[in-house]
Every structure is written in structure tokens, then in C-alpha cells.
Amino acid sequence: MVAGAQLTVTDKRRAARHPVDFKAIAEHRTLGDVHLHIVNVSAQGFMAQGGEALERGERLNLRLPVIGRIEAHLIWSHEDRSGFQFERIIRLDDFLKLVDNLQPNPRLRPRR
Questions:
Q1: How far apart are CA 34 and CA 15, in angstroms?
Q2: What is the domain partition of the chain in residue ranges?
Q3: Architecture of the domain made up of 18-103
């Protein structure tokens, strides 16, 4: 048996990230509800602050505006920050709508 997440999305940590301030409740298979504070997002994943002590490769299901339900895998964690990769890449048009929804400051939204 192979340990860790088996992701189909390639590692794109250099992808453009957009600052957001979004509190979400994700579902974990054994911990139940996990509270996340998402501080930046890209089409491939997000970074959260605080939250539970999760192990690398663990999966969460969360619901995001515009996108709906999506699974994310923990890629890294350091102190109170953690980086998650989505199970799939979000389409550009949906991603732009997501950022508009999560980022109330128009100056911090991506230019079109």
C-alpha cells in the first residue's frame, strides 16, 4: 500500500496566489469538522492558518463559493500554517469568480 496522497494535479507551488480572508469548515474522515482560516488561494490549492494538527497527505472536503464541494490534500505544514492542494485544478473563469467572492477588497483582486 502506498502512503500519502496520490494526486493527479502537478505540483505548481509557484502558481499565482491571491490573498483572501475566508473562514471555512471542512470535513475530515476521523476528526469530523475542521475549522480553517484560508488566507490565500490559487487555482491549484490554498494556504490556511490555525486549524487542527493534520498529517501530510490527509484529505479534507470543503465547500467553497462558486466551486462547491472539493477535496483538498495537505501538502505541507509549518507552525500554524498549512498548504493544501485541490484534487483538481479549478477552471479559470470559476477561479476568478471565487476570488471575487472571497476577496472583498477590489484592489487585491486579479486584473482582467
A1: 26
A2: 18-103
A3: Beta Barrel (2.40)
**Contact between 39 and 54 (Cβ < 8 Å):** no
- Give the residue among 33, 27, 44, 29 at the shortest CA–CA distance from 83: 44
Rounded to whole angstroms, how far apart are CA atoms 58 and 110? 30
Q: Which three cell numbers stand for residue 78?
A: 509549518
Q: What is the pTM of this model?
A: 0.79
For position 1, what pLDDT does the model report? 45
Torsion over CA of 31, 21, 99 and 68, rounded to 10 degrees?
30
**What separation in angstroms does the CA of 67 have from each of 9, 80, 87, 107, 112?**
17, 26, 12, 22, 20
